[in-house]
UniProtKB/TrEMBL annotation:
Keywords: Annexin, Calcium, Calcium/phospholipid-binding, Repeat, Signal. Residues 1-17 form the signal peptide. Belongs to the annexin family. This is Annexin. Pfam families: Annexin.
Length: 257
């Protein structure tokens, strides 16, 4: 259920109003009034869910951050009140909406690695879609909040080529410039071919490094030139050459690109 919620939130862009701006900032913005409304929602015999929805579900991430801190300074802890008064997925989603982007992502990353087995797909998708700066914010929040680093959790819960890929991405080592060096594109195309379709088995390291270090615009050019040169799509190559977590991760990056 939580994983579904995460996917919904990350893919729709509704909650953070970031990727697809379907949510525009409330104007005029009245954080004191909003905090008071929320406070009122907890006062009656029954919690007023409509008030909670109308405040938390219709404001942008940065506005919700201000509302949450206003509430906390004037009326105690919003998170605790939501925890106490609500239940089920409505509780889960409402609490998530009070978290800053960084805290939200940190908690979700932690959750993907808690419990039985690691939710590798969610882990890949969260790490893949964040900028180096966002990842740096998450890493520093994470270590303060949990007392150990994000990378150490990834190390304990993953292995092999997938581990190296996800760590290089989590450490924010991806080139983020928008300039594409076509000489390097050509070199990468040849390297990927030589390390994949040209040999029996595949040289995972070559794929891991190119897919975790190069910019997404660069990878887009690599995909185009690869197909032009060898008559096969890079997406197909990664799905035939690799299986398991690494296969799915490389495939996801191709799709994301
Ligand atoms: C482009 O990539 C090639 C090959 O790696 C490198 O030798 C060259 O210096 C790069 N050019 C620029 C402008 O960075």
């Amino acid at each position: 259920m939580r994983i579904l919620l995460i996917s919904f939130i990350l893919s729709s862009g509704i909650v953070f109003g970031q990727d697809i701006p379907t949510l525009v900032p409330a104007d005029p913005f009245d954080p004191n009034g909003d905090a008071l409304q929320l406070f009122g929602a907890f006062q009656g015999f029954e919690t007023d869910n409509d008030k909670i929805v109308s405040v938390l579900f219709y404001q942008t991430a940065s506005q919700r951050e201000v509302i949450t801190s206003t509430f906390d300074s004037q009326h105690g802890s919003l998170e605790n009140d939501l925890k106490f008064d609500l239940a089920g997925s409505f509780q889960t989603l409402s609490i998530m909406l009070t978290h800053s982007m960084t805290k939200f992502l940190s908690i979700e990353l932690h959750e993907t690695m808690s419990g039985l087995g690691t939710a590798q797909r969610a882990l890949t998708e969260i790490v893949m879609s964040r900028t180096n700066q966002e990842l740096a914010d998450v890493r520093s929040f994470y270590v303060n909040y949990y007392g150990h680093s994000l990378v150490s959790d990834i190390e304990r819960n993953t292995c092999c080529a997938y581990q190296k890929l996800i760590i290089q991405m989590a450490e924010g080592m991806r080139d983020e410039s928008n300039l594409v060096n076509m000489t390097l594109v050509q070199e990468d195309v040849v390297a990927l071919y030589e390390a994949g379709p040209a040999i029996f088995g595949a040289d995972k390291n070559v794929y891991v490094n190119i897919f975790s270090l190069r910019s997404y615009v660069h990878l887009n050019e690599v995909g185009i030139l690869f197909e032009l040169t060898y008559g096969m799509s890079l997406t197909n190559v990664v799905t035939t050459e690799f299986t398991g977590d690494i296969g799915y991760a490389l495939y996801s990056i191709c799709k994301y690109v």
